[in-house]
Amino acid sequence: MHVVTILRYYLGMTQMELATQAGISYVDLNEIENMKTCGMIEKFCKVATCLHVAVHAIAMNDVLSVPEAFFQQKRNIKYTNSPKTKNSRLGRLGEEWVFQREQERLEQINPVLSRLVVPKYKLRGSRGYDIVSFKENGTPFFIEVKT
Fold it and tell me: How far apart are CA 113 and CA 125, in angstroms?
């Protein structure tokens, strides 16, 4: 997963929203996020400016280069509705527990990474896994919670 995708999730933005704000096409942003980046330095600069991060963090796909100032930005996350059935509520409690454990684990290692743990289960339209977390070296990995 590319650092732009992670930062976009953190801010609760869709690809289309970020592309529009950065002044690039959806296709270009999709290529950046899928690491098809040959000759895209101008577009890296636009995305970096929009996200308030260094260009090298995007060009080198380096999540550890994300500055503390990034976390001062307002988050505009559209959360899903609260679960209504007993099993769904139990599942959500399990996801919350794992999310909190991942943040605590990373807080000891790298506080920046702990803030980048993304609770995908809360975002509208998310499928495939529940949480995006990180290894100690900044490599993202995905967690699917089964309660």
Answer: 24
